[in-house]
Every structure is written in C-alpha cells, then in structure tokens.
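Suppose a colleague, Dr. K., hands you the sequence of a protein chain of 274 amino acids and asks what its three-dimensional shape might be. Before reaching for any lab equipment, you can write down a predicted structure in token form. Begin with the sequence itself:
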Amino acid sequence: MEDFAKYNGEGTPLRKAQLCMLNILIEIDKICRKHDIPYWLDSGTLLGAVRHGGFIPWDDDMDICVLQKDYPLLQKFLVEELPQRYQLSDTQNDPYAFGLTPRVKDTFTYCNYPLFEKQNSQGLWVDILLQIPAVPTWYKKRIEKIYARVFREIHHYAESQGKSRWVCMFKTTLAYLAYPLALLLTWFGDSWAKKHYHGELMHTWDVYHGSRRYEQEIFPLSEIDFEGKSFYVPHNVDAYLRRIYGDYMKIPDESHRQIHMDVNSLKFFNTTPS
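The predicted structure, expressed as tokens, is then:
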C-alpha cells in the first residue's frame, strides 16, 4: 500500500491543520447532538472517512451538510455555545462573508487565503453546506450563475479580490440593480421545488457545483469513525458517494491530488492572535 506520509505525516503542517479542523468539527458535533440538529459528513470529508478512516491524506478542508431549515437554530447555538477560540462566519455576522455557506473558524490559527483576507478571521475552518429542496439541474445551473455573482458582489466579493475602489463601487451598484431579478428567479425556483419536492436536495443558490443529495439515502443518519471519533453520515454511504465520485474507493493519480491551502503560511497560536 502506498505511503501517504509525505502529505500529512505526523508533525507536518497539513497534519496540524487537519487536527485543528477536526477539533472544530468535534465542537459542532457536540452542539448538534445536544440540540438534536441533524448534520452529516459530506464530499471529501465523507470520502476520507470511508476510504481512509479519516482525512484524505492530501485534503485541506472539511465539509458537513445541514438542512437550510435547521440552520437558524444551529446558528443560534453556535454563536452562544462555541468555545471562545471558534467563530461563526456567515453573512449575518461577518460583512465580508460573501457566500451563503457558513464557516466555523479557529481564530487561534492563520492561513493565507486571499478571498478571506477581509473577513473577521482567516483561521482554519469547517464549511457548513446548506441543503435546500432541489430544482431541475438545468435551472439551478443557469440561475446560480446570476444569483451567486450578484449576491457575492453585494457582500464585497470584488473588494475581497483586491479590486480598486471604483471597480468595487461599479460592481456593487450593478449587483444591487440586478438583485431583485436574482431574488425573483430564486423565489420561483424555491416555490417550484416545494411544490414538486420528491426528496431531492441541492446546495444553496450561490454554490456553483454539487451533485444531488437524496433524503432516502441520508435519513435516518448513521455514524462512522473519523480519526477515532464518531460523526454522523448518510445511512446509505455507498449510493451517496457513488453519485458524487463514481468509483470512490479508487485512489487518484498523484496529478489529481491537490492541496489548495498555502501550507507554508500556516500559523498556530497558543493565545488569541492580535
């Protein structure tokens, strides 16, 4: 079997980052269990649990899914009960959180990630992918390009990319003019999905990618070991992962193993960073 220690061997920056993200997930899991809020491991995090018993060796993020209807309650308890070092970043409490995907960040860490530079924290994070009733794929693909761009520009996306003041003002003005149309299109989609709902879920309108999730494969939730801890997963993991990845047990070639974060920029603080 291939030795993956070159990616995340003990003591490497990536392994330290993975363990920090694991601690974030442990805190989210505690809150969800305490208040009976369903969540499940998703995407590469779920794949890593099944194929590697933990992180994919070269993986540098964590994803969980939560039904959007459950998020207001989860948001409330995350704000109230997370340990002080962890911070929820979403559009309600972070003016530069330009997407609808909430993130719980570790403020005792730092990672150079330019899109997050102006956010309240640039620490390591866990993504909370919100799931809503699905519309036809063709409609989602067309509307999300409009809605996501408009929504992100209103939430300072251009500024996060380091654009000039005038470019930011121009893009934001156009976004506000287009926002009513974008909202109307998503409202129509949401209404259609609720009326014709057959147990299919999709990511929120601002997320460009993502296969369908099916409630019959997800609920009732099961549990799986991930890095020695137990977390919730879809009860039919095989069907869930095959839809996303195909032959998910096949290890990809080295050319397809990507570490997205700048591991050389990682910093780990023993006290709250200034």
